[in-house]
Design goal:
Helix content is 16%, strand content 34%. With 161 residues, it is an alpha+beta fold. The chain has 2 domains: 59 residues; 59 residues, OB fold (Dihydrolipoamide Acetyltransferase, E2P) (Beta Barrel). The strands form 3 sheets. A 5-stranded antiparallel beta sheet has the order 4-3-2-1-5, with no helix packed on it. A 3-stranded antiparallel beta sheet has the order 8-9-10, covered by helices on one side. The longest helix is centred in the C-terminal third of the chain and has 16 residues.
């Protein structure tokens, strides 16, 4: 069966009382059996002293850390080591720098990269820019003093009626 991790929000443990300092998830633990449609029994160590059956809301599938290995690295034509970009997913702006959300080949999660790091994939960025429609920002109209006075007098007239 699959490995799962357990959420500690609803469990009293011997971890420090500070919720900030204790781990949010513990595990991985193997699933022993499916007890009910929404409950699973997991193989807990005896030191935890918890009932081994948990609702699916407090369990999630275990994902092994992917940062330990560097899959799909390639040697680029200039001799540097890099990764292959699968797609440009989104564009954003952080303070003054433009960033793109990049989906890498073989990676589950996309990462935000500044434009300066993406000089090798200008073709993909240009294709993304051509594909996405330009969003125009609506400018806020400045309200003149005359309009403010007119609004106030209209409100005063309504109150007097």
């Amino acid at each position: 069966m699959a490995d799962v991790t357990k959420n500690l929000d609803t469990v009293h443990t011997r971890f420090p009382n500070s919720r900030k300092l204790r781990p949010k998830w513990i595990g991985p633990y193997s699933v022993v059996r499916k007890v009910h449609r929404h409950a699973y029994e997991i193989n807990l160590p005896p030191g935890l002293k918890l009932h081994p059956v948990f609702n699916t809301g407090s369990l999630k599938p275990y994902e092994s850390p992917t940062r330990l290995s560097r899959p799909h690295e390639v040697i680029l034509h200039d001799g540097q080591v890099g990764q292959i970009v699968e797609a440009v997913v989104n564009k954003g702006q952080r303070k003054v720098s433009v960033q793109y959300l990049i989906q890498w080949v073989g990676e589950k999660k996309a990462t935000w990269e500044p434009l300066e790091n993406l000089h090798q994939v200008t073709g993909l960025i240009q294709a993304y820019e051509n594909k996405t429609p330009k969003r125009s920002r609506k400018r806020r109209r400045q309200i003149s003093e005359d309009e403010i006075v007119c609004r106030r007098t209209r409100q005063q007239l309504k109150i007097q009626d």
